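Q: My labmate handed me this sequence with no annotations at all. I'd like to see what the chain might look like in three dimensions before we decide whether it's worth expressing. Could you predict it?
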Amino acid sequence: MNLEKVVFSFVVLLAATLNFGFFIGDLGDPALHSPWELYAAVVVNVIALVLKFGDRTQMGATHLATSLVACLQLLTATGLLVFFQSVQPDGLTRHAISQVVSLSGGALLANLVSLVLLVVETISFQRR
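A: Here is what I predict for the chain of 128 residues:
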């Protein structure tokens, strides 16, 4: 068993599940979307991004692209969340949290693409 592949797969799956945990729930209910889960999703997605830098294959480039998209959307969502919580006079309204959750949904889609690529890569490796 290759420990590097296990760690890589673990981090990619953890990034997707943390993002899913933040995303799931009523789009406009701030009580259902924990900021700490969003922050954890950002940290794990950045770790996944760093792990994907060494691969020089086409599949590796696609993995890297999905991570870049996920990180960009999650960082934007986090920036909006911080803005709405600290600067916006109305605080975290239904409209505000829906913008944050929608951005995390885009990142979730990128994470799911990354998971599909990981499964395809694993299946094709078994056939060699």
